[in-house]
Sequence to fold (114 residues):
Amino acid sequence: MKLNKPYTNAQYADLAVYCNKNGKVIEDFGDYLEAVNPPEPSDEDKQVQVRAVRNRYLEETDKYMIADYPITDEEREQYKAYRVYLRDYTLEDEWWLANPKTYEEWKEQQQLTT
Fold:
């Protein structure tokens, strides 16, 4: 979708609504505005995002490491192993291309491989 200059506020609003509905961004080309695909995030941006997800998963499992948290020793060992997986996640090749598994996903995978 393209909007030639000069444009009205209503026309700009319509372009903005279109962009929001279609995952586009408005880019200014000088004589006109156009709805375009957003730029692909850099590898560094992706790494920051995936690390944030990994860190959140670690924080969510912190409570299971407290000695008197009401879980079994077996469950605590599973959470410890999951946390090792999370800490080592960034050692994998191209780890930033996907988020680490949630605990439930990781546990299911462990059960399938044993």
